[in-house]
Amino acid sequence: MALVNENYLKLPGSYLFAEIGRRVSKFKSENPDADIIRLGIGDVTRALPAAVIENLHKAVDEMADEKTFKGYGPEQGYEFLIQKVIEYDYTPRGINLDCDEVFISDGSKCDTGNIQEIFGLDNKIAVTDPVYPVYVDSNVMAGRAGILNSEGKFNKIAYVPCTAENNFIPALPKEKVDLIYLCFPNNPTGMTLPKNELKKWVEYAKANKSIILYDAAYEAYIQENDIAHSIYEIEGAKEIAIEFRSFSKNAGFTGTRCAYTVVPKEVVAYTEAGEAISLNKLWNRRQTTKFNGVSYIIQKGAASVYTPEGQSQIKTLINYYMTNAKIIREGIKSMGIQVFGGVNAPYIWLKTPNNLDSWSFFDKLLTEANIVGTPGVGFGPSGQGYFRLTAFGSRENTEKAIERFKTRLKI
Ligand code: PLP
Question: Core-most of 345, 351, 384, 398, by most CB within 10 Å?
Fold first, then answer.
């Protein structure tokens, strides 16, 4: 008799987006003429930059000729891309990396979900709350999270609240934790962590022999100075941190798929007998066994992000979304609603007016203004009473949505 992995049965189901879909469908069937604007999803809407498209075409042509054809590539990624990543994203910030410390992949979702495999099941996990759900769910599947309690928390995970009360700055956990997921700029709150706060986490990890899993998928959106683009800007972080980056949100690769993960050779975790083991070696073993690498064509496209044209084109893309963020942020703020994020990130996190719970505000916004956003409570219990809007829509829809906020929403 085949047995299932019963840990999967502990997952609450993908309630959030299924429930949003159900409520929007019901509203549409009752109001077929309503023009619904979606500011809920975290997917980009602008086309790929021209420099990327040009290189993708060239790479396709290379596949048509035996002299330039590529079969299986290195699972860790082609050196032409890895070298550019190091040269553009790390060297200018004073961070030295070797090529075998950067692993090209098909997404930060996969990497942040898969990384837990190289750690023992007895590790205590810490996540910020609210949180990108992949970190929690992948640990539930592995059997590291325990069971879901009535507060909406897994009993073996340490949740670190990030709310307006602490200005979205997570406090160090009181209990000892082993694996810490941090994501800055943050999805869903759109907030960042000043360098002196990030330093505290690095020091905590060093003192406790913990590992920080640092998700920097939104790094390209940072506009202010005192914010680390990479955790390795903090002294000592190369000994305790793994960093995730993606081409999804800076260059529009959400459908094309390319990302990378940095695992410095100094980062170690321990056997029960206390022997230090290189996580770089373990991740390399995991990837070479279970992953076949990102296609040559896509890696060629990603490498063109690091050409002068590519750099200028992605800047234009980011500016486009950040202008949307400003329109949303300032428009909503002018109504007297408390808003957070949207300065160094494409997400705007608002406090629901009149202390409505997240789902009641979802319904109100949908019925009164025909706008779809994401209820904050869907990202964790501390998201209750908050609501996420994204800057990834078109300018036209963004402006229209804010106009509707001001003219149709009754608050
Ligand atoms: N990490 C965070 C915090 C995200 O919000 C997302 C996507 O929304 C990802 C990772 C996924 O990135 P990718 O498209 O590279 O899988």
Answer: 345
Pocket probe for ligand 1: among 132, 184, 379, the residue whose CB has the most ligand atoms within 8 Å is: 132
> Looking at ligand 1, which residue's alpha carbon is closest to its atom 8?
42
pLDDT tens digits for range 20-64? 999 999 999 999 999 999 998 889 999 999 999 999 999 999 999
**Cis peptide bond upstream of 130, omega within 30:** yes
**In 3D, which of 258, 253, 257, 262 has the Cα closest to residue 216?**
262
Task: Break the chain into its structural domains and give their ranges.
Answer: 14-43+309-407, 53-306
- Cα 149 to ligand 1 centroid, rounded to whole Å: 27
Q: Measured at the alpha carbon of residue 78, what is the angle toward residues 105 and 184, in degrees to the nearest 5?
A: 40
CATH topology of domain 14-43+309-407: Aspartate Aminotransferase, domain 1 (3.90.1150)
CA 326/CA 220 separation, integer angstroms:
16
- Which pLDDT band holds residue 326 (cuts at 50, 70, 90)? very high
CATH number of 53-306: 3.40.640.10
Instruction: Using the mean position of ligand 1's atoms as its centre, give its distance from the Cα of residue 274 in Å.
Output: 34
pTM for this model (two decimals): 0.97
The residue whose CA has the least distance to atom 3 of ligand 1 is: 187
| Ligand 1, CB within 6 Å, residue ranges | 42, 107-109, 112, 132, 183, 187, 215, 217, 246, 248, 254, 259
